[in-house]
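Backbone-to-sequence.
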């Protein structure tokens, strides 16, 4: 075995290497890197360092070897108050519950039936699933680079130009928060309507009672809050159970419908039947309007980053969970839709009888010809509603907690309080605020069902635009600030980002269009009007509150200039010349010499030029019997500096000594 392979760490004794201070003067080594080097090479750590490879020691100095999950939160200078218990499987379950495929498609089925039928429902779903996956991939890359519970509103600030950082973060944050609150309200209120429509299975003359729906809505809000509060330590289990329940629900419904239905449509009907005569729109426009059910359903993945504080290794698990949730939801939707279309009855039986009975209830009743079986199938969907409500409130409360932590909400000290319940930390007050806002929005349904429906449509618009702001900022910045992320899109990044932005714009247009024409005051889609009111509110609140109080994401400025941002005055130079440090006493100066490349290997030596710090001083003489290589017994291969760093590339060394990270 060669001397180099036996021990790549050589010449680390204090007297073995001459000082060459000028080698580092042009390296622009940051103060943070020097502090880390001083800490890592402290004499008290020598025995631990002795058994590490040179590359690993570099990682220790640059912070790349940190296994502590709180490291990512520390980069944002936030105190870690919530416990990291959730895994990637749990994040998939959470995303799956937010999208709630069988429930989402069941409650909006009538839109697809009116605007095209089979082609719109099936192929429209496939198109939206692919486009949503592109958006999820784009956000996943950004979240992997900047994992934060502030999620996309933090990332919008970081990726935007210096001039617009704070205001981009403010508007993105409000769109995200309003979208979260409205989405939770929409899911639970729609669930209440769906549950009560069960009575229509028995009584074809059933009429919806607004007060009864509102009462059930309040009960479901309270139950969702109770689960989030009292069973916070079981969220991982609840999210995993959601996946099992949802997939099981889809399979059970499909199998029973195919077995019990007396008549079936042929494959040509399922794959190619298109009838938009009921919509009044031209066929092409009708198809796009018919994408609303899929657009409503495949939303919510942008809410997932709010869970960053509670996820193990969020820089990896949040992106994976987000993308896999959309992928699984897309596949589940296809599996759910095809059997429904296979046994689909005549449209006049579903759309012309009773508007207060949801078409999916009638599909179950007509296909099974059994009230009991239909009732049990509906109960399976009710379970999916409950999971969706719990998950939506979870993300809403975490987004509220993060937004208040940045002083974006009045009385922020109230909403950031965390309580310990059954040894689990919960942002209880943020949870109560989310529930309170949902109840307030629910009351609006008593005054105008059209206005309430517009609030729900604007929820998806708000979330879509919030998702688009950081993606657009990244593209305008030529994607420079997402380089080095753990979740890499590489060369297809630009393409996916552009597709995502196209889909977000198209989503906003689609969700603002009425389902049918001609348009009346009642049938008019007021979603965009409500969204504009949200935007106006955010603008006014920025003028009178936000610009004076909102702090934006609190990043750790010791990191590289690419990741560092001061929200009020960005620093253009995040490094200092090493001469600044040499003028101070009580500091250890490290130097690099002999940086070259020879047959793929790199030679690198580090020594100390002056040691005057009483707390971190090196001994004048090192006990070579202790520090020598245990394999060859050669004192020359001792460990107080670096040489022959075989596992470290010249590129890595170059990047490290420019104040960045490899």
């Amino acid at each position: 075995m060669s001397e180099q392979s036996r021990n790549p760490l050589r010449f680390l004794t204090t007297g073995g290497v001459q000082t060459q201070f000028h080698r580092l003067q042009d390296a622009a080594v940051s103060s943070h890197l020097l502090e880390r080097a001083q800490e890592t090479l402290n004499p008290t750590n020598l025995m631990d360092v002795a058994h590490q490879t040179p590359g690993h020691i570099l990682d220790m100095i640059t912070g790349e070897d940190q296994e502590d999950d709180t490291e990512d939160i520390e980069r944002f200078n936030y105190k870690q108050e919530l416990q990291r218990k959730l895994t990637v499987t749990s994040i998939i379950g959470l995303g799956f519950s937010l999208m709630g495929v069988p429930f989402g498609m069941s409650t909006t089925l009538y839109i697809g039936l009116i605007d095209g039928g089979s082609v719109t429902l099936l192929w429209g779903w496939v198109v939206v699933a692919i486009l949503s996956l592109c958006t999820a991939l784009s956000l996943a890359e950004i979240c992997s680079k900047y994992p934060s519970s502030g999620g996309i509103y933090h990332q919008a600030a970081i990726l935007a130009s210096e001039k617009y950082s704070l205001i981009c973060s403010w508007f993105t944050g409000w769109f995200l928060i309003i979208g979260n609150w409205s989405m939770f309200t929409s899911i639970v209120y729609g669930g209440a309507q769906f549950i009560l429509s069960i009575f229509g299975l028995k009584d074809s003359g059933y009429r919806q009672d607004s007060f009864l729906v509102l009462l059930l809505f309040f009960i479901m809000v309270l139950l969702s809050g109770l689960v989030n509060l009292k069973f916070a330590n079981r969220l991982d289990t609840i999210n995993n159970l959601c996946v099992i329940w949802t997939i099981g629900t889809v399979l059970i419904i499909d199998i029973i419908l195919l077995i019990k239905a007396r008549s079936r449509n042929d494959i040509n009907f399922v794959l190619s039947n298109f009838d938009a005569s009921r919509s009044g729109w031209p066929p092409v426009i009708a198809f796009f309007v018919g994408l609303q059910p899929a657009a409503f359903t495949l939303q919510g993945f942008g809410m997932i980053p709010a869970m960053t504080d509670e996820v193990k290794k969020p820089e990896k698990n949040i992106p994976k969970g987000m993308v896999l949730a959309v992928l699984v939801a897309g596949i589940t939707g296809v599996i759910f839709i095809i059997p429904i279309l296979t046994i689909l009855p005549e449209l006049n039986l579903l759309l012309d009888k009773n508007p207060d009975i949801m078409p999916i209830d009638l599909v179950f009743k007509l296909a099974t010809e059994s009230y009991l079986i239909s009732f049990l199938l509906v109960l399976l969907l009710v379970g999916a509603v409950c999971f969706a409500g719990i998950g939506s409130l979870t993300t809403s409360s975490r987004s509220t907690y993060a937004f208040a932590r940045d002083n974006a909400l009045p009385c922020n000290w109230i909403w950031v309080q965390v309580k310990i319940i059954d040894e689990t930390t919960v942002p209880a007050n943020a949870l109560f605020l989310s529930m309170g806002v949902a109840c307030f929005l629910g009351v609006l349904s008593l005054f105008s069902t059209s206005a309430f429906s517009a609030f729900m449509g604007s929820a998806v618009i708000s979330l879509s635009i919030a998702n688009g702001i950081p993606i657009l900022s990244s593209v305008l910045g030529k994607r420079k600030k997402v380089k080095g992320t753990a979740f890499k899109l590489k060369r297809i990044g630009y393409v996916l980002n552009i597709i995502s932005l196209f889909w977000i714009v198209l989503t906003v247009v689609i969700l603002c269009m009425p389902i049918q024409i001609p348009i009346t005051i009642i049938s008019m889609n007021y979603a965009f009007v409500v969204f504009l009111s949200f935007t106006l509110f955010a603008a006014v609140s920025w003028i009178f509150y936000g610009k004076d109080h909102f702090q934006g994401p609190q990043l750790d400025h010791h990191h590289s200039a690419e990741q560092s941002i001061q929200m009020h005055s960005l620093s253009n130079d995040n490094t200092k010349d090493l001469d600044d440090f040499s003028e101070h006493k009580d500091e250890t100066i490290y130097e690099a010499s002999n940086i070259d490349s020879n047959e793929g290997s790199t030679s690198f030596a580090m020594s100390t030029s002056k040691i005057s710090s009483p707390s971190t001083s090196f001994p004048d003489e090192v006990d070579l019997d202790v520090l020598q290589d245990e394999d060859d017994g050669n004192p020359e291969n001792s460990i107080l500096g670096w040489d022959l760093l075989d596992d470290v590339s010249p590129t890595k060394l170059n990047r490290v000594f420019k104040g960045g990270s490899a």
